[in-house]
Amino acid sequence: MESEMLPLDPTESFSFRCGPEVPCFNACCRDLVQLLTPLDVIRLKQHLAMSSTAFLERYTVTYPGPETGLPVVSLSPAPGEERACPFVQESGCQVYPARPTSCRTYPVARAISRNRETGATTEHYALIREPHCRGFEAQTTQTAPEFLNAQAAAADFAVSDRLMDIIQLKNRLRPGPLPRGEMTRCHRALYDLDRFREDLERHPMVGDNPIPAGQWAAARSDDLALLSISLAWVRHLLFGNTPT
To answer: What is the pLDDT of residues 119-133, one digit of tens each?
Structure first.
C-alpha cells in the first residue's frame, strides 16, 4: 500500500494525534528526504546556538532544483541504513520546538492558488495517509485550519508563499538551470543568513535601492527581518524590476 494524498475541505474534520503513545512513534523520522525552508534553517540554527554557516555545513546538503535550478536544502541523514533524521532519538525529536515546517504540519499538506488579476489567494488542503502511520486511529479530531493553527504554522506559510512566488516566476520567466554563481548567491541569501548579513553590511542594497534605515536596523539583529530583505533581494537578482 502506497501513501495517499486525500483532498480535504477546510470545514472537514479528521482524526489524528502523534506522540510517544502512538505505536509508530518516530517511524516518520526515518527513510526520508527532509527538505528545509529558509525559516527552518533560522529556527534550527538558533535552537542549536550555531551560525547559519556552521549549521549548513554540518547538517545539510544542497543541490539545484531539477526544474528551477534554485537551491534546494535538505537535512543530511544520520549514518546508517535507516536514513534517519539526525535529530531523532528513541525518546523523540531532540529539536522539537524548532522542527521543520513539513514535520510541524504533518499530516496536512497545504497549497495556494493565486488569482493573477486580483492577487487573491485560495488555500487548498490534503491529508497525507501513509501505510505505517497509526496516528489516524486517535480520537482527537480537528479541521485542517484548526490543526495548522495549533502548530503555529502561520509564519511558515508567510515565508513559503513568498518563496513559491519566486519559484513560479522563475519557471515562467527563466525556465531551466541557473548559472552556478547565481545559485550560490541565492543559497547564501536565503539560507546562510549570517554570511548574507555580512554582505549587506558592506552594501545594504536591494538592486539599486538602499534598504530603508529602519528596516536595515531591525535586520542587523533579527533573522526574520533579514529574511524578508533576502527574499526581495533574490527576487531582484533573478528578475530585476519585473512586476509579479
So the answer is: 788 999 999 999 889
Sign of CA dihedral 7, 11, 14, 20: positive
Q: How many domains does the chain have?
A: 2
Q: 236, 243 in Cβ contact below 8 A? A: no
Residues 146 and 185 both lie in one domain: no
| Domain-located, residue 244 | no
In a domain, 243, yes or no: no
DSSP 179: P
Backbone angles phi, psi at 134, to 5 degrees: -105, 0
Q: Are residues 57 and 120 in the same domain?
A: yes
For 87-101, the pLDDT digits (tens) are: 999 899 999 999 999
Q: Do 180 and 226 share a domain, yes or no?
A: yes
List, in sequence order, the alpha helices (H) in the chain. 38-47, 52-59, 101-105, 144-150, 154-173, 180-190, 193-202, 213-219, 223-239
Q: Which residues of the chain have pLDDT under 50?
A: none
Which residues, at least 6 apart from 244, have a Cβ–Cβ distance to it below 8 Å? 165, 169
User: Are the CB atoms for 196 and 230 separated by under 8 Å?
Assistant: yes
Q: Provide the residue range defining the domain that includes 195.
A: 157-238
